[in-house]
Design goal:
Elements: H1 3-14, H2 19-58, E1 64-68, H3 81-90, E2 94-109, E3 112-121, H4 123-129, E4 133-136, E5 147-150, H5 151-157, E6 164-174, E7 179-192, H6 197-202, E8 203-207, H7 208-215, E9 223-228, H8 234-245, E10 249-253, H9 254-257, H10 259-297, H11 299-307, H12 312-347, H13 368-394, H14 398-403
Helix pairs in contact: 1-12, 2-10, 2-12, 2-13, 10-12, 10-13, 12-13
Length: 405
């Protein structure tokens, strides 16, 4: 053990005789520990939310979406079966290619009204979605000529399988005297739950033939959905699909389609980190106070050590060691407390979430990288806070403290 470490630890032990100084030291450790633990728990929960969101989105209806470029006046296009077969043959990682005719519309049930996206899908596409059905008319999970509503939307409209709803499209049709919106009555044949409340609230499915008739368009679609064998393959497969379809189409993978969500989560994580780091910074003020009081108490000792040959840097290091030990102890305690709380939240789902969230309980995902970053930042804050009292101790003239003897 070098000189600075030996003297610094001795000074820490000598604080036990000073109750007020010991209290400040304890509060410093506790503040740092609480700050570190809070950072670890909050960042782990936010990381868990992001992981849960990615899991929901990556297991959704599709991983890649192709639409016609916005420079085209008409977004609709023909997508024959031969084109589907060509895409399947181009990449073995493709599991499904589903042309979709989608439109924005209004749904009306009694006096209740809501906006939604009506998606016309093929029989094979409907078959792949039937595992999401939670209720079906007559107990049969089929999409014949009616409509499937999301669970959240069905709840808000207070409708059940077998009920009838009215769909109103902004696309107008010529009436006897003037243009009127297109309207059609659909029977609710099923209620699905995708696990994504936002989708369940704003998306409905109907047979593509019914949507074609509703919109007055035949043999055309305006979207093509692609599913791959594993969501991690969506980026390379999207590149291949983009090359095959040409510049006429805009092709995006599931991460690009939901980039706004992930950007929001990233911004929230950074914001929470900055705010919660303030707890550690405030706790470091207590360390500064504790070390300043120690410097005042040990002025005579500091002068004697300098008279005996101790250099100013060694004197400064004595108090840096004290700050590092106090803060380091708080960081270690906070690390242990934070990991313990994360384990308890993951093992015992004590906090239940409302239905609007993706999970019923707090998702927790402890990232070793985040934990290491939190520990490093907290320790650096503590050490930087110790610099001021350490420099003050090093500047004490050797004779000043000796005169006080």
């Amino acid at each position: 053990m070098d000189f600075a470490s030996f003297v610094g630890i001795r000074y820490l032990r000598s604080k036990k005789g000073n109750a007020f100084l010991s209290l400040i030291t304890f509060l410093s450790m506790a503040g740092v520990a609480i700050g570190v633990a809070t950072l670890i728990v909050i960042l782990s929960v936010m990381d868990g939310f992001e992981g849960a969101l990615k899991g929901r989105l990556s297991t959704g209806d599709f991983h890649i979406l192709a639409i016609r470029g916005q420079e085209r006046e008409d977004p609709h296009f023909n997508f024959p079966d031969s084109k589907v077969a060509e895409l399947f043959g181009a990449d073995s990682r493709l599991q499904a290619v589903n042309p979709v005719l989608a439109t924005e519309a209004i749904i009306k049930a009694g006096k209740k009204v809501s906006g939604l996206q009506l998606r016309g899908i093929t029989d094979s596409h409907a078959h792949s979605l039937k595992n999401q059905l939670v209720e079906a008319a007559g107990g049969s999970p089929r999409l014949l000529s009616g409509i499937w509503l999301g669970q959240e939307l069905a709840f808000n409209l207070n409708v059940l399988p077998g009920d009838r709803v009215q769909i109103i499209s902004p696309v107008e049709t010529e009436g006897p005297l003037e243009s009127v919106p297109r309207m059609r009555v659909f029977q609710v044949e099923g209620v699905y739950a995708s696990g994504i409340p936002e989708k369940d609230l704003h998306t409905a499915y109907a047979p593509v033939a019914s949507v074609e008739e509703f919109l007055g368009r035949r043999g055309v679609v305006n979207q093509v959905e692609f599913r791959v064998d594993h969501f991690e393959n969506s980026v390379p497969v999207a590149e291949k699909v983009r090359a095959l379809l040409g510049e006429e189409f805009l092709v995006k993978d599931w991460e690009q389609l939901n980039a706004h969500l992930f950007s929001s989560l990233k911004l929230e994580r950074i914001t929470m980190f900055v705010i919660l780091t303030m707890i550690v910074i405030v706790a470091s003020f207590n360390i500064v106070t504790s070390l300043r009081m120690t410097v005042m108490e040990k002025r005579r000792d500091i002068s004697i050590l300098q008279a005996m040959g101790a250099r100013r840097r060694q004197i400064a290091n004595v108090f840096l060691v004290q700050g590092a030990v106090i803060g380091g102890t708080g960081v270690v305690l906070g690390l242990g407390l934070g990991l313990l709380l994360c384990w308890l939240l993951a093992r015992y789902p004590m906090i239940q979430l409302p239905d609007v969230f993706y999970d019923r309980s707090l998702p927790v995902s402890v990232s070793p990288l985040f934990v290491a970053f939190v520990v490093l930042v907290a320790f650096l804050i503590v050490v930087l806070a110790s610099l001021s009292p350490a420099r003050a101790a090093a500047k004490i003239p050797p004779l000043e403290g000796i005169r006080e003897v």
